[in-house]
């Protein structure tokens, strides 16, 4: 039998974090969640005897150090500012959370293997083809993403550098770059497009599409995403310095127009599509035209993954909301 692990999940009350927490609990592990509940919710977490919740911020080093006596076997570090509405408004807070917050976690729990959740934002704004981990990251592109004020993209990149330095010193670090993870229970409060479209369609409100709607995204279903992570964990080579940055997401790109039409069809809604300029909502920021991952490197570890189609994802979200409304 595998040894029961004691695991810390920062941001564990969020959409992705809570899904990882449930997977760990189902494996028999003991899980500690650290979350300030600024964007996460206790409703995302199950009642479980092996689950311990710590309400606080990764920015508060004294609070983080209060957990120092717990002997963790692994860290999942997801705590971050989420969603474009917050990321484009609070640049310094976003950047500091990525950098200071990550340092607080890694410095407090020295030597503990750590899975760091970066972002596809580190690839910048101007890609026209699938992006791979070997692609050179331009700091100018990061700044362009952040409207010349270091924020989300620059912060995630800086977080990666902190992780790389730890890895080079001999620590086991895995750096993941997720691509638009979506699914049931995700909320649209902070700008996530899929739940926003579904909610608006169900309630007869317009679906706001930025610019011409031909921006392409990878929409990656949450449970498939988490499955990839747990297939990666046992792969020693994936933790090796210089090999430990990995894209995870669907290789199938869909336009925002595609998403809008699928949502309208699956909800049988007559909501109109309203086209607006991106900068009306996010001043001085440019939308990403194309963001789809090349996952060939990751597939050498987690295999060839069959990702659910965008229509299947939307259909399942709509059905879950219908069941919830009935209950």
How does this structure look, described?
- The protein has 327 residues and is α/β, with parallel strands linked by helices.
- It has a domain at 6-182 and 219-251 and 293-305: NAD(P)-binding Rossmann-like Domain (Rossmann fold, 3-Layer(aba) Sandwich).
- It has twelve helices and 14 strands.
- The protein has helices spanning 15-26, 61-65, 84-87, 91-108, 139-145, 152-168, 193-202, 222-232, 256-267, 278-281, 296-302, 310-326, and strands spanning 6-10, 30-35, 51-55, 74-77, 114-117, 173-178, 181-182, 207-210, 216-218, 220-221, 245-248, 253-255, 273-276, 290-291.
- It has a seven-stranded parallel sheet, with helices on both faces.
- Strand 1, helix 1 (15-26) and strand 2 form a beta-alpha-beta unit.
- Helix 4 (91-108) packs parallel to helix 6 (152-168), helix 7 (193-202) runs parallel beside helix 9 and helix 9 (256-267) runs parallel beside helix 12 (310-326).
- It is globular.
